[in-house]
Amino acid sequence: MLSVRALAKRYAAPRARTVLSNVDLDVRAGEYVAIMGESGAGKSTLLNLIAGLDRPDEGTIHVAGKALAELDDDALTRLRREHMGFVFQAFHVLPYLSVEMNVALPLSLLGVGGEAAGARVRDVLRDVGMLDRVSSRPSELSGGELQRVAIARALVHHPSLVLADEPTGNLDPESAATVLDLLRTQVETRGAAGILVTHSAAAARTAHRVMMLSRDGLREHSP
Predict the structure, then answer these.
(1) Is 80 contained in some domain?
(2) What is the CATH number of the domain that holds 104?
(3) Which end of the chain is more exposed for a tag (fewer CB within 10 A), N or C?
(4) For 134, which DSSP code?
């Protein structure tokens, strides 16, 4: 689902610096990989490159068989909508929409509506244990419930790749453990490739394997 080869990213201003170099990564369908690294190691930069939000200076990225370097901005936007799901630390649910409407947003962007969309939304909300909250507003939910909604939204369009950036940073330990277990289970059962970026060794241990990012690239790690 994801193949990264010899990836490098440099910035010229305000001072010349190399953020990433010699990064190789393969993630298979149904595999959930954690990426750790010190602050400034380039974890967020790597996610932005994989998502096609930034362009590398060297190397290649393939998502679901498509080479990102061969796609223009419009094609990259379509690729993100069709093949990627995102889970963030800050949830990013829209406060004026119900749980159901928040989860349905990726389908709306793909032109899927009506009963087909409703059935998929209900299915994924059932999977994350939020089916009884379809009409609730985000202000009525706890942090753990909001992240469940965010996971449902990330998965409702059946993405090939799920990118999670510190998804438990705003949660208490019990809610964090529940969300991490849920995220891994959903990646496995839906056959997506999953990447978890985290500074937490406990969170990383929920993944199938852990990689450590440094200026020398990515290497296997035992947290």
Answers:
(1) yes
(2) 3.40.50.300
(3) C
(4) T
DSSP string, 123-187: HHHHHTT-GGGTT--GGGS-HHHHHHHHHHHHHTT--SEEEEESTTTTS-HHHHHHHHHHHHHHH
Structural domain includes residue 96: yes
What are 63's strand-pairing partners? 2, 66
Output the pLDDT for position 51: 95
* 82 token code pair: 């069709």
Give the DSSP H or E segment for 84: strand 84-88
How far apart are the C-alpha atoms of 18 and 100, rounded to whole Å? 43
Quick check: pTM over 0.70?
yes
Strands 66-67 and 217-221: unpaired
Residue 217 lies in a domain: yes
Q: Based on the structure, what is the number of domains in the chain?
A: 1
Q: How many Å is the Cα radius of gyration of the chain?
A: 17
* Domain ranges, residue 154: 28-41+76-221
Asked if residue 56 is part of any domain, the answer here is no
**Parallel/antiparallel/unpaired status of strands 161-165 and 193-197:** parallel
Q: What's the pLDDT tens digit per position in 123-144?
A: 999 999 999 999 999 999 999 9
